[in-house]
Amino acid sequence: MADIRKIGIIGAGQMGNGIAHVCAAAGFDVRLNDLTMDKVRSGLATINGNMARQVAKDIMTEEERKAALDRIHPSDSYDTLADCDLVIEAASESEDLKRKIFQEACPVLKPDAIVASNTSSISITRLAAATDRPERFIGIHFMNPVPLMQLVELIRGIATADETYEAAKTFVSALNKTPTVSEDFPAFIVNRILLPMINEAIYTLYEGVGSVEAIDTAMRLGANHPMGPLQLADFIGLDTCLSIMQVLHEGLADTKYRPCPLLVKYVEAGWLGRKTQRGFYDYRGETPVPTR
Ligand SMILES: NC(=O)c1ccc[n+]([C@@H]2O[C@H](COP(=O)([O-])OP(=O)(O)OC[C@H]3O[C@@H](n4cnc5c(N)ncnc54)[C@H](O)[C@@H]3O)[C@@H](O)[C@H]2O)c1
Question: pTM for the full model?
Answer without folding.
Answer: 0.95
